[in-house]
TrEMBL record:
PROSITE patterns: GGDEF
Region (Disordered): 204-238
Name under which the protein is recorded: GGDEF domain-containing protein
Keywords for the protein's UniProt record, in alphabetical order: Membrane, Transmembrane, Transmembrane helix
Database matches in InterPro entries: DGC-Regulatory_Protein, GGDEF_dom, Nucleotide_cyclase, Rev_trsase/Diguanyl_cyclase
Domain of life of the organism encoding this protein: Bacteria
Compositionally biased intervals (Basic and acidic residues): 225-238
One Pfam assignment: GGDEF
Cross-referenced NCBIfam families: GGDEF
Lineage of the species this protein comes from: Bacteria, Bacillati, Actinomycetota, Actinomycetes, Micromonosporales
Positions of the GGDEF domain: 75-211
Source organism of the structure: Paractinoplanes hotanensis
Segments crossing the lipid bilayer: 6-25
Amino acid sequence: MFTTPLVIATLVAATLGAAIGFLISHRATRPIIARLRAELADAVWQLTHDPLTGLHNRKGLRTIHTATAASAEPRQIVALLIDLDLFKEINDAHSHNAGDDLLKATADRIGQLAKLHGGHAARLSGDEFAAIMPLGATRLARIAEQFTAVIAEPIDVRADSGPVTVAITASLGIAVASSTDPLEGVALHHADLAMYHAKKQGGNRHVFHQPGMTMPGNRPRRGSRLRDRRRDQNGSGE
């Protein structure tokens, strides 16, 4: 079949037009795709992180533990349950803004220390935090001392009357478990029992979980702040 220059030119023009149209359409959809990806990433972050402190929430810590258990041979991990001592008194004395500043600064310190030891930290609720990390060469007593010392360092917060410096201590419960053990049923549960013993002994200390350990009598009362409980009930955090 004989092809004239006019036919060839027509075919080339049609091909170029289709290619240009595709490129224009592709470029036009790039911002939409980028926005959808950003919105999806933000939604995932909201599901797994605490909005106040930026740490993982309970669901986020659970996800990390599940991935750890599935990605390698069973190994020992360290679970820390951290409860701030007398947080309510500081929160009530200096306003909720001061309390939020204190929680955010404390969370940052806990998160950095957990990362230093190859682990992850979470805010479970109120003034209660947790961390999980692989059992390494560092002595557990040394790790506990680092957490209690760093948390106790003074923090500048915003009170109703202006800037003020406060200091707070923490009660730590520490447990060693297998990475394949249930996170909340074993690792955090054992650490929680030990934490209550630390709290009962006056706080500002750590206690290691021992086999057969049970909840101490007349356990100190603690719990999340009312607005945290309301937020959790509304489904904005876990």
